[in-house]
Amino acid sequence: MEKRDSNASASAFHVPEWxxxxxxxxxxxxxxxxxxxxxxxxxxxxxxxTDSYSSAxxxxxxxxxxxxxxxxxxxxxxxxxxxxxxxxxxAEFGRREIEIAExxxxxxxxxxxxxxxEKPLAGAKIVGCTHITAQTAVLMETLGALGAQCRWAACxxxxxxxxxxxxxxxxxxxxxxxxxxxxxxxxxxxxRCVNVEGWQPNMILDDGGDLTHWIYKKYPNxxxxxxxIVEESVTGVHRLYQLSKAGKLCVPAMNVNxxxxxxxxxxxxxxxxxxxxxxxxxxxxxxxxxxxVVCGYGEVGKGCCAALKAMGSIVYVTEIDPICALQAxxxxxxxxxxxxxxxxxxxxxxxxxxKNVVTREHLDRMKNSCIVCNMGHSNTEIDVAxxxxxxxxxxxxxxQVDHVIWxxxxxxxxxxxxxxxxxxxxxxxxxxxxxxxxxxxxxxxELYNAPEGRYKQDVYLLPKKMDEYVASLHLPTFDAHLxxxxxxxxKYLGLNKNGPFKPNYYRY
Amino acid sequence: MEKRDSNASASAFHVPEWxxxxxxxxxxxxxxxxxxxxxxxxxxxxxxxTDSYSSAxxxxxxxxxxxxxxxxxxxxxxxxxxxxxxxxxxAEFGRREIEIAExxxxxxxxxxxxxxxEKPLAGAKIVGCTHITAQTAVLMETLGALGAQCRWAACxxxxxxxxxxxxxxxxxxxxxxxxxxxxxxxxxxxxRCVNVEGWQPNMILDDGGDLTHWIYKKYPNxxxxxxxIVEESVTGVHRLYQLSKAGKLCVPAMNVNxxxxxxxxxxxxxxxxxxxxxxxxxxxxxxxxxxxVVCGYGEVGKGCCAALKAMGSIVYVTEIDPICALQAxxxxxxxxxxxxxxxxxxxxxxxxxxKNVVTREHLDRMKNSCIVCNMGHSNTEIDVAxxxxxxxxxxxxxxQVDHVIWxxxxxxxxxxxxxxxxxxxxxxxxxxxxxxxxxxxxxxxELYNAPEGRYKQDVYLLPKKMDEYVASLHLPTFDAHLxxxxxxxxKYLGLNKNGPFKPNYYRY
Amino acid sequence: MEKRDSNASASAFHVPEWxxxxxxxxxxxxxxxxxxxxxxxxxxxxxxxTDSYSSAxxxxxxxxxxxxxxxxxxxxxxxxxxxxxxxxxxAEFGRREIEIAExxxxxxxxxxxxxxxEKPLAGAKIVGCTHITAQTAVLMETLGALGAQCRWAACxxxxxxxxxxxxxxxxxxxxxxxxxxxxxxxxxxxxRCVNVEGWQPNMILDDGGDLTHWIYKKYPNxxxxxxxIVEESVTGVHRLYQLSKAGKLCVPAMNVNxxxxxxxxxxxxxxxxxxxxxxxxxxxxxxxxxxxVVCGYGEVGKGCCAALKAMGSIVYVTEIDPICALQAxxxxxxxxxxxxxxxxxxxxxxxxxxKNVVTREHLDRMKNSCIVCNMGHSNTEIDVAxxxxxxxxxxxxxxQVDHVIWxxxxxxxxxxxxxxxxxxxxxxxxxxxxxxxxxxxxxxxELYNAPEGRYKQDVYLLPKKMDEYVASLHLPTFDAHLxxxxxxxxKYLGLNKNGPFKPNYYRY
Amino acid sequence: MEKRDSNASASAFHVPEWxxxxxxxxxxxxxxxxxxxxxxxxxxxxxxxTDSYSSAxxxxxxxxxxxxxxxxxxxxxxxxxxxxxxxxxxAEFGRREIEIAExxxxxxxxxxxxxxxEKPLAGAKIVGCTHITAQTAVLMETLGALGAQCRWAACxxxxxxxxxxxxxxxxxxxxxxxxxxxxxxxxxxxxRCVNVEGWQPNMILDDGGDLTHWIYKKYPNxxxxxxxIVEESVTGVHRLYQLSKAGKLCVPAMNVNxxxxxxxxxxxxxxxxxxxxxxxxxxxxxxxxxxxVVCGYGEVGKGCCAALKAMGSIVYVTEIDPICALQAxxxxxxxxxxxxxxxxxxxxxxxxxxKNVVTREHLDRMKNSCIVCNMGHSNTEIDVAxxxxxxxxxxxxxxQVDHVIWxxxxxxxxxxxxxxxxxxxxxxxxxxxxxxxxxxxxxxxELYNAPEGRYKQDVYLLPKKMDEYVASLHLPTFDAHLxxxxxxxxKYLGLNKNGPFKPNYYRY
Lengths: 508, 508, 508, 508
Description:
Four copies of one chain form a homotetramer.
Chain A: H1 17-31, H2 38-41, H3 91-103, H4 106-116, E1 125-130, H5 134-145, E2 149-154, H6 162-170, E3 175-176, H7 183-194, E4 203-206, H8 210-218, E5 228-231, H9 234-245, E6 253-255, H10 260-283, E7 291-295, H11 299-310, E8 314-318, H12 322-330, E9 334-335, H13 338-341, E10 347-350, H14 360-365, E11 370-374, E12 393-398, E13 401-405, E14 411-415, H15 421-424, H16 430-449, E15 459-461, H17 464-474, H18 487-493
Parallel strand pairs in A: 1-2, 1-4, 2-3, 4-5, 5-6, 6-15, 7-8, 7-10, 8-9, 10-11, 11-14
Antiparallel strand pairs in A: 12-13, 13-14
Helix pairs in contact in A: 3-5, 3-6, 4-5, 4-16, 5-16, 10-11, 10-16, 16-17
Keywords (chains A, B, C, D): NAD, One-carbon metabolism
Family (chains A, B, C, D): Belongs to the adenosylhomocysteinase family.
Cofactor (chains A, B, C, D): NAD(+)
């Protein structure tokens, strides 16, 4: 669910500061005692694993049950207790959620059908660490249908849907996850996935890199049997490129974050909708006539700008990259420096992947009632820390909405405390999750079945043909009819009729 | 000016049919006698060199002078006769045109200023073969100002502006080009550029590949001194990749056709405007409420669809590539097979780069008054040949507009006889030409100054940093203000403050 | 907040069926005993007064206090008990809400300032019946500042914000309203507003016509002193035109529902945003690529279509009026009959003001997961009653979201049980409420101060100049700078420099 | 073809300056000798009659024939000489043009069919004064088919298509018009239409008011038999309202200029396309990224703004009317005073209907290469006269394009010398002309057949039902399917199933 930095480079050739910090953390990590307290862990857990997360409402809601799942004895109806969830009794409700999700994930269901005969994942032992939602459940059960054995933990301490985890456990999946884990719980769950007698994973599906990290540090020998890693997030991908650069990556890894479909759908198309949704749900504002500055014109920025322009806002853009800047011009946006418009805008939206894009100085100059939010990256883009000073008053007016009040009475409206608006204040459509999940499944199949030598100990993008296949599986949703090349046309173009249809450098 | 195939792959890894034909032609070419007639040449000239071309009106227009320039004795005011143009006396008028173009090409003018001190092209001997227009003249005089010596021919037998050629000749540029060359003239001009005593080119700037081709065949030894080739067109780039694949490319070549700025501006942004312009100028039709099918959703198709949707047309899209198809869906277009809508649409537009996308069968089924045109590639997309049958009547109703009339009275409106609408029936904005020309200049500088070994005998894309530099030179046109990274931000992102800002695979 | 029928005529020259029903009800109404039970009233209360209503969350929420406000003894801090609200102690919280609303209603605040000196409502005794929200409070306190005395009841049994009512009562406004009134309470509150010793209203501000209706039936003599009625809703305006037509309207009435600003802002611009908001909040769906049919292309339909098209949906339109139909065509929408597309669409949205636009037959033919909602009028547009049959299963999946399940497993997703999506599932921006409230204030001032004879016993539209004034008061919100005519220009155009600027028939 | 003032009021209640001037002219007019020279007439001819006019290219072009048509003796093939055209021999070519136009005017053709049986214009003697084009010919022949006798003159001295006039004369229509009339010719032609023995008109179809004016002054007694006037232009309508106001209008008149379809199609939808077309044809500029200021946000301004925004321009708006100003805000345009942006914009477009909107002072401050053009009204909006001063140099660079050069070398690009860009530099789609012509035909039928007393000596708008009928006749062009009300729905809405569907004040 994380977003590819739009404005920033995710270049594999540089070592950004935060990665260096991360490297430092790992050193500290090694010194850690086995029984780790919350404090000592706080810097080594990935940022994404503690992001606030607004999942679909949990229908059965919080029981008053305060017992930690780790202290409970639970068994599913088949007698297995190889799992740890909040409450196995919620399984039925979770099953219904999964069934609804199945209806909206036709690509995975089609994959189940098409690939079921040959069981392309027969023998695969997949350990996974992702958000645990109904959509993930559909992915896991698809992997199972394709022949794989799976063990699963959550990649975020808040995002697990307990009912879904229960349903998976009831179906026999060893799931270790619940909503509201402590950081100690977090690592305990991951460890329970991998540290099990008589079972060793040969594939990793990771979201954020924490699982990969754990195995590297605790069970490096496991990599001897592991055929590959599939990683979805920007953060995890960065970590992998760093390992690769440092010569420490010992298995092939697939960067599915940068696949075309994920980039365009997760970022451009999804943000085009979620910026409107996030702003409306939090502020009920009217978009028409509002002046907005969007920092960064990558895919996320492009989506935000297009949506707001369409709703009648007047949009300014800031950029550091002259090519993206020129695109903004041609798309009809005034390209400015933030300082030029900061006094006049009604909304400030960051989508840069950078840090301190909005500084205290900017915040000081904003006009009364200005709304500030972050669509880009983690919680670094707005210097929220600078607002935690005695002369400013914070007033929580709604969930995820704070008024920060200056001594002269000026208020700015800060959303989600500067964390990602689209994760915190809107929901991600199942359709987008379906694309991501299908990509993950195909990447696992590719890595698992690749002939010896096709993939080295490096980070790869998904083969274009697979990217195209993911797209083709989603076309029926739109009742879309693809044209097929005639033999004559394929010959003329020098293409295989089944693709791939574009050179690797094609930009879409 | 040619357009990158949108739908088709320009893959370097396949050998399309037409390239193989081209290879055959070259063999035939070798057997040719020195004095070649029009007929024998007709297959070996590149397609683009005979495309019809709608340049800005020539103000001094056709003199009645029917003498071939090759038979004239002309000198410029400095006494030189090392050129061949229609009429050297038109120089003054051409100079005014060049001056107007200079005003609209601020990037090249800035380049002159910035690089003039160091003369980065000092010693360069550039032979060029491009359209000869006021904009090209600004490029040539910029190259001169940077230290280069230039000799130039036209890449298209129709596109030369005689006044501009005269002005260049008057200024001392050996130019060999006029409007309405025969094919024999065409090669004669090219030969005059390269086959000159005491001067040997060390750089090639080509558009279409004919110049490169000629040197390969006639003066292969010249390549010993040539530092590199810069090629702009799809066709020329294909030829280069083919040479490279065949191991016959003996100098580095720069593919500027696939640079980001060229792709996005020449295709997406330029076609967004030229589709409307081309249709209006030829048919005066109203766009609102019209049903349109656009074949191909590459950059060109995306531009056409966006423009027509914005003008109130109802747009259908056909595609062969599932990723582009999914983009069309998300952008709000019904994805269909051509057959599904062919009976109901008012306009058919091809942007595929493919052949026979619109067949006689499709044409038979179109409704009365349906407009058919090609925005994609050469003249292959619509099977125009199939309309040259006795039962159909052709009626020329305007320049570039034919009614083809069926026996039952049904008419379809065929534009530009199926050749490129945007070349034939609209003009290319100077701003776009400025981007292309600046890219060419930078590519020449890069190749000429690259340290030994940076470039091998292969085809390269322009380094991203140069692409970014071209963009940055054009931002002042829009009064656009770029943001600079702070040191802290650059460190955080692991980027150099001056770029490049994106990894090579970034899609924009 | 009600919306002007988009597709239907609100013609004053016809007597629609439901008005006749209403006339019948009034007869029955007369026979009613004084102490009326819920049942007997159920048909005489206006539709709008029981519409479900999603106001901003009440922050202090439901106390467990189950005592009816009518049975409580409450006094404000000044000792007055001439009010009836849920809990006077919530006044402070309500005051804060009012203060926040004041910041977003600059036009009313400007009106307070500009008109305060002259007190244009000095002597006015206004009885009002509207939604009681923070925005209404700003209106009431503005009326007070302009010199008026006010007494107020709620026009909807659900929509009162108790804290705001408390704050108004605390400030000395006799307010009779709480959230969750019974229908008996509803009339009791209205009666308490008008039936008071020593005070008789001379102005009416109504929303829905219930207050006017009550005075007509119970205190017809009051009209002798009443200078005019200002009515905001479609329903109330219909009632007034009917009275006028029947010769029974005995005071001038101002139809502010059809003022330009209200029409365009409440309908076109507001719905452009609320359709997206309503759909997202209820279903989390993705708009891109979805096929949608919008029934009715009036202002509401135009807003819905524009928004969905901008988000990448493919939109079809149905219409009965050929002019609106032609507009839909020119705006780029396929004009169809509902039957033509009902099997293929993902979403059905009604905006017609008509009844049974979506019938059971249509519902039977929709595809699985089709979403059905109403943006038009009351709850008549979708024949929801036809879905209450034994073979269909209803499943409430979220607040305002029902799955209706066919025997074969097909589900349709019905939003807000067919009532207004924008009232039930999204919020109305303060900016729109500000326009409406300002219009109401100006209409009251105009009617109250109009010289004898300017207005007869008829229904009037707001004078254009006032409409323009409302607009001008809202321009500063957008930092918009109006151009002034020079004397010469005004003379040339034959206009007064201060307006009105358009003839009455101008369509904007 | 003229456009309804967008920004200005066409109020019937004011007497603008130019109308007063016109009244003065009429006095002078009376004193004129019979044989009038060019000079003396120059102020009494309507502005629109001398507007430059870009009609579709005349295919047979200018013969060298310099003889005035008035001095020629011509007969058609039936022996009649009751006409005066350039060359009767061009009839065949004109007939083909008419036949092509018939294909694109299905509404008139449908009207011929539907109304032919009953001949609703039997007995009508219509004198007309309009542009004489193929489209007008289709109108005239439709009127003939409906039973009317017609005599016709041109309303503009430049706009007549000679071939079409010849074809009409050949078919027996007494037509008096040719391209390039002198002003004396202009009035002579009109006089030949009305001053004929044994024939007296009983209906007038006018465009600009010159014909009406002539009859008023020369043959006032004719009005005794005249049943009504149908007038299309803003200018003519103004004149009629002035007559009405002065109590001098002695027959009913129909203002078809303000019919809904004409307003929306001729202005909003047509200008949305013609602004792009006009700018491209004259300047070949690129729209993307350009800064544009549009003066006036009426229908014309709305169309221009929407089109340019869609093409990626950054658009500012100026307005005098706060309601239109607020619409501009909500549609996403910065509302400014011209002075605020005049230094930075690349294009200035006037659409106000006002005079001197762009003054010399503004022109002095524009930046180099700024393009200035008028989409609004006549030639008054830009103070072009102020540019005719010695220090400025004018350079004609293309047809309709002048560079005006300041002493410091700054150039502005003035299009069409400040006259209407869309008349001068683009063409009007047949579809729009079809709507206008159909409206005119229906207005004639309505006035001719109206029962005694339905229309007084006043100016009327077309009955809404007729407006709806015009629209419905054009729906088949778009394959658009109208929905019909059920009996139950019609009853519910209180509407007739056949319309009218909206109250008169409905704004669309």
